[in-house]
Write a structure and sequence with these properties.
alpha/beta; Endonuclease, Chain A; 19-stranded mixed beta sheet; 19 strands; 36% helix; disordered N terminus
């Protein structure tokens, strides 16, 4: 946790340097669904273990009758595919994981059970007790003959001694430092320090994948006491509230492809041979879409979020660690609330990066005035990045609702279609609401002037946060 402010300020500094050139911008997604409407008439593309499903089978997966006034999953899936170019994948098992201890235990269990390959991509990989535990487990599997490949971000690991990664290299593990801070280490198409790899992905044997908000750091080793009746006795006992997802089934191939694409873009060396794409098998009944976005790409995750907000009929429930929305997102949230959608957002009450919190505060007045409900999580550092729309469109991933995630980072999110998983997401959201304080418009307008000045100053940094 101590290293995070340093990483943040280094990243902010690089962004200020980058600002000397032209600023990148997000695409116009206003009324995106209307622009894509012709595509909604067709059945969405759904892939299974044996290839693409017929239109009839694809429609059957998404044609359950829902109560009027809620999201039409089939239409939403078709619009989303038209916007992102990414198909749905059927036959998966999706397991929600909450906070570091549960998630990290499951990840280590998967690593220890690996038989063929481990592909691991992370923003932060600290040399602390937890980081050493993961490094030891990965080294042990490499020595057993399992192929281990790691991508770690240079800014995210800025304070980690080189010897930590050298030890893994010496054991035979292949590692790539993504976008090195030192330009002398850069190969390929030049030094693009502003672009970071913010993904957190573990893929084991091409059969199991993990993603979400959790990095490899002792910071995440302490639970937020989510769903616990007990409360921390002091600030030292405060944990981090985060969410991860474990995927088993054909969708793991999409994770594998995104990892390999990121590896080859680094232009370092070839991946060692392994069975990265075993024959997929049906592991469950969940239909998912795996979205990866990159700087200068097609804004797949941003477009998926925009569509979901615009098409919502009943509820928008967001959990956002770093909530610094762009103007189009603010307008979409306000428009949803004004047409009667229940819009609730859980944001940090305690954060590791204070400037980001104040930048997000700059939008509270107009959001609250429009009917958006905002809650600040107590007794934990919020780091989760999740959403559930109308109780049946859900997403878990690494993407924050901010310009940095949508413009400058490599990110990954999983979208899960359906009410069963949506119910799980809703239950988790309601638990977070229970542990939060609501921000009312009246109280907000009476906040101290010192806070207003911080918000005013932070708002000018919106683009670079």
């Amino acid at each position: 946790m101590k290293l995070l402010p340093l990483r943040y300020w280094i990243a902010a500094g690089t962004l200020c340097l980058a600002s000397l050139g032209a600023c990148a911008s997000l695409p116009n997604v206003t009324a995106l669904g209307d622009k894509l409407e012709p595509a909604a008439a067709a059945a969405p593309t759904v892939k299974g273990p044996h290839g693409e499903l017929s239109d009839a089978r694809a429609k059957a997966l998404l044609s359950k009758r829902w109560a009027k006034g809620t999201l039409d999953l089939q239409a939403q899936a078709s619009l989303e595919e038209a916007a992102t170019g990414v198909p749905l994948i059927a036959g998966n098992k999706c397991t929600l994981l909450f906070d570091g201890p549960q998630t990290l235990t499951e990840m280590l269990k998967a690593i220890q059970g690996a038989r063929n390959s481990i592909n691991f991509e992370t923003y932060i990989f600290d040399q602390d007790e937890l980081g050493m535990k993961f490094a030891d487990a990965l080294i042990a599997k490499q020595r057993e003959g399992v192929v281990v490949n790691i991508i770690y971000d240079s800014v995210g690991t800025i304070g980690v001694p080189a010897e930590f990664f050298k030890r893994m290299r010496d054991a035979g593990i292949r590692l790539i430092e993504f976008n090195p801070v030192n330009p002398a280490k850069v190969s390929g198409d030049g030094w693009k320090l502003n672009n970071r790899d913010h993904r957190k992905v573990l893929i084991v044997d091409g059969k199991t994948a993990f993603t979400g908000g959790i990095n490899i750091s002792a910071t995440y080793a302490k639970s937020s006491l989510f769903r616990s009746a007990s409360r921390p006795a002091s600030k030292d006992d405060v944990g981090w509230r985060d969410t991860h997802i474990k995927i088993e089934g054909p969708a793991v191939q999409a994770f594998q492809w995104l990892f390999i694409r990121q590896w080859t873009k680094a232009d370092k060396y070839d991946l060692p041979e392994a069975d990265y794409f075993p024959q997929p098998v049906i592991a469950g009944d969940k239909v998912v879409r795996v979205l990866g976005s990159d700087p200068g790409g097609h804004f797949e995750i941003y477009k998926a979020y925009a569509l979901a907000l615009q098409e919502a009929k009943k509820s928008i429930h967001l959990t956002s660690a770093y909530f610094v929305p762009d103007r189009q997102t603010v307008d979409a949230l306000k428009a949803a609330a004004q047409r009667g959608v229940d819009v609730k957002i859980v944001v940090p009450g305690v954060s590791d990066v204070g400037l980001v919190v104040y930048a997000g505060h700059a939008f509270y007045d107009e959001l609250l005035a429009a009917g958006v409900k905002i809650y600040q999580l107590k007794l934990a550092v919020l780091h989760a990045k999740t959403a559930v729309i109308d109780g049946k469109w859900s997403t878990v991933g690494s993407t924050n609702i901010d310009m940095r995630s949508f413009l400058h980072n490599s990110e990954i999110n999983v979208i899960v279609m359906g009410e069963a998983f949506g119910n799980e997401m809703e239950k988790a959201f309601q638990e977070d609401l229970r542990d939060s304080n609501q921000v009312t418009l009246d109280a907000w307008r009476k906040r101290p002037w010192a806070n207003r000045m911080k918000e005013w100053a932070a708002r000018f940094m919106n683009y670079w946060l």
